[in-house]
Predict the 3D structure of the following.
Amino acid sequence: MTTHDPRYRPATLLVQGGVERSQFGETAEALYLTSGFVYDDAEQAEATFKNEVQHYQYSRFGNPTVSMLENRLALIEGAEACRATATGMAAVHSALLSHLKCGDRVVASRALFGSCHWIVSTLLPRYGVKTEFVDGADMDQWRAALATPANLVLLESPSNPMLDIVDLQAVSDLAHAAGAIVVVDNVFATPLLQKPFKLGADVVVYSCTKHIDGQGRVLGGAVLGRKKWVEDTLVPFIRNTGPSISPFNAWLLLKGIETLALRVDAGCRNASTVADFLAAQPEIARVWYPTRADHPQRDLAMAQMSAGGTLVTFEVKGGKQAAFKAMNAFRLIKVSNNLGDSKSLATHPATTTHMRIGAEERAKLGITDGVIRLSVGLEDVEDIKEDLAAGLAAIGR
Ligand SMILES: *Cc1c(COP(=O)(O)O)cnc(C)c1O
């Protein structure tokens, strides 16, 4: 088997998948920090532009380090093709804008990452695309919205920050019957815990900034899908609009992804322990974690995910004031709007990531002023629990 063989198991593909060695036989993936490429002669340049020979042309179109990342991501995801982008939002934006045109219709789950919500609610309508939001957990709303023909469905599961679960197979079936492709933002599940293509998705997008880098260093994104869609629809858009990733960032992501399975596994174990710990504390009104018995969609989460993920969302009693007191008293856990890092990070969505969507939309999503999103890191779980306890104790003071 070559390192491009999808029969290798995920842990193997994460480390070796897609490697292309240069004539020097380097062990680690080479960093081709170059914007352009040279040809042997003018004939080779002509043949390259005619697509008669394969040769890198320009790093906006393709780069060997970036290709290694794309091939590795495609192998792990079980996708026919992948294109890496500069950020997760470049991935979402490219997937949507490359597929849609004026007059098209998009149905999206309401519980989207803030910028994805803005693209659907604000940007697409400017270009004459009709958009409609539904509550992702409510199949009746999906059924009603997809009774009318549509071109694209966008959803996120588990959602940010309330960890709602969308039934990927059921929504994909309805979407396909309505004529739509299904785009799944799989960031919270990571490529390891949930396989959207097996559940009917047509396109999967990632912010590689999160667990794939996982160490808070670089931005990156990826779009995965069928070869024909990627080559005919996505690639012309990326080539000509330029959301391309830097080879340096792609190289860091290639090295980060080697430890993805170890990090996600440890993060899930810590998160599950932390969720149970939080649920037992008197200062807590409610905890959301997909595989906990009190999650309203636990059965669905267990059916389509192999673990609950590295995020825990909880609501403290006492609203914004109590949430701020707790966050300000954390020492180990850092206040940040990022997630998927090896360091534990706490976010107050109502005043940061989800401030701009407005109070009315937040209320629909269940994001109250007491809600804190915790991205559980790789520290010793006893230290994380002690830090949380100290934060909660500060609420009463
Ligand atoms: C972070 C994130 C994005 C955007 O990714 P960037 O790399 O920050 O552009 C999109 N969707 C989800 C679910 C995210 O968490």
User: Anything to note?
Assistant: The chain has a mean pLDDT of 96. DSSP finds 15 helices and twelve strands in the chain.
